[in-house]
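Hey, I'm writing a tutorial for new members on how sequence and structure tokens pair up, and I'd like a real worked example in the thread rather than a made-up one. If someone can provide the structure for the chain below, I'll link this post from the tutorial.
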Amino acid sequence: MEGHCRLQIDILDVNDNIAEIVLTSEPQSVREDASSGTVVALLSARDLDSGNNGKVTLQLPKGSPFTLKPSFSNNYALVINGALDRESFSEYNIEITATDSGSPALSSKKTIRVSITDVNDNPPVFSQPTYNVYLKENGVPGSIFYSVSASDLDYGENAKISYSILDSKVQDVSVSSYVYINSDNGSIYSMHSFDYEKLKVFQIQVQAKDQGSPSLSSNATVHVFILDQNDNAPAVIYPSSAILGSLSHQRMPRSAKAGHLVTKVTAVDADSGHNAWISYKQTEATDSSLFTVNQYTGEVRTKRAVSEQDDSSQSLVIEIIDDGEPAQSATVTVSILLEDGLHEPILDLRQKVAEPSKKSGRITLYLILSLASVSVLSLLTFLILAVKCIRNSRSSGSCCMRRSDCDDYKNPNRNLQIQLNTDGPIKYVEVLGGDMLSQSQSFRSCLSPMSEYSDFTLVKPSSTTDFKEMISVLDVSLPDSTWTFESQQVSRKQYMTFYLH
């Protein structure tokens, strides 16, 4: 007897397969200025196991400017998630880790190489913003006198630099007529020789530009200082006849004593510094014992008194030498005629200087004495006036004040007020006083030349007749007016009124 049955055997999955990463598109080069979200590559993850053993998770290293963006069914896109800089990282090796969910979990890794292409985002940079160049004058035209250099962090054509000189003016002439620059290496050439006496310093604006698109550039300043060379001989400016190449004729009396100033040779040097320092030296003379030349001033003086045996015509050859290297020199010939009975035409310069100094010294002394005398007299006058005012104030106890200040005056016995009324046809001055018992106190007027109104002086003691004096004073101040005096006593106050008719 036979029987049949169907037996179903279920095979349980074991996590024995490693997750895999498959690139569905090769990674492309990325510009360094690419924006976030730009897709770099497409990939998928798979695991032959089933269930949890087949679930795959992908991970990127921390700090990476990239991220994985899932799309569908274990497919992912590698996209940019941060700023890129080719000058910092020109290439990225992205390591992706795929891990399943089995136990134990299995994983695998895959590295994707992403290249960053350059963008012209860096301008050329000079080695220094300014350059100082020292160039000797009289150089050879066409020679290199300096080189500038710049660098660019970009790559390829973006890093290729060309040099040029920006147009500017030097003494109203284009700078390109003075210098030329090699556009490839930055070497600067002189177009002609420079003369320190005409041009001492000038500056050049050098521009470095890359070949990117759009191109970037930067500038640097080159200061060129021309150095002086001893290329000018001393030039004689006195005696003036020596300038034209002729002899300089000087006359001198035979009665001249030792130290007599015959003449003075003056020369200048167009150079500067040590090259312009000049000295004088006597090289030839008819009689070398008769004259001497000061090394620094060029003064020609007699070394001794002139004798009868000396020739009437004397000749001196004076050499003028500068302090340059090599030294430059010039000569001047001075002809001196000795004559009898000739008054000295040229006075000793030392005497000329001494006489004005004595006169000016005397004038200064007189001015000082005058100033001191005026100061002492002013001080004494001030002291005398101060002492006199103090004594008067103590003896009389009076004070002088303007009409506008009379309200501030306080008398311990009575309160005084003075009022001037000029309104209407009747003009009068009213004096108000208190305490009738103090009859010995009254007023006396005084006028101030510095004011347009009458001032009053309050004095004590005095009689009431002083009011008439005050009326007379007011009458003097107003000669065309007639004054009347009226006194009233009301309660304990005294009213005194001056009427002007």
